[in-house]
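I can't quite decide. Please look over this sequence plus structure tokens:

:::
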Amino acid sequence: MSYSNLIQPEMKKIGAVSCWSTGAFKRGLFKLASGDMSPVYISADLVLKDVTYRNLTISAMENLAADLEFDVVAGGELRGVSFADFLAQRINKPSVAVRKKPKSYGARTGEMKEYWIEGMIPEEFEGKKALLTEDLITDGKSKIDFINGIRNSGGKVQDCIVCVDRQQGGRERLEKEGVRLYSVTDLDTILMVGKERGFLKEEDFKEIEDYRADEKKWNLDRGYEWHG
């Protein structure tokens, strides 16, 4: 077993502590991008506001990226860009930003109608292997947009690193697109650390587990619409 494989379970716990300590993990009632409700919300980018937790997070990403093959680190608009920039600086690689939609104006529109990349011109990005770096993954829908953006712009992508995996189908969705997912930490670990350290009350833990067991039922039982 490699050093990377040995250290990753401990890094997941450190990543979870980072989420609790910086307020990145929140318990309450929140509307997700899908329109569905959730008893948890994770603003993973908040781990970057503290220098210590930022360094730990980027070190964990560096460890995950150590055995991967790529030429450039690509951050998804908006929150993924900061993670990409910090990681790229640490490992001495170039970084780019991937837009949510292709740019339809400016100097590059004549070169390539669907160019989603900021930080490299099309000729430079053509054929590059990109490591997609993001703050969070839930069901993976937004990641597919970024993956398509990289590929439509002439690049290649087969790996994605996120700070937090909410474990709600994102990994499986990316696998169907031929992209492997790696995460600094995940919701299982965040909840485990929360219980162990007394950050999370037993009733709150049960509520979250009910939600995770059947998100649709949890929403409908509480009178919320389900968008799926």
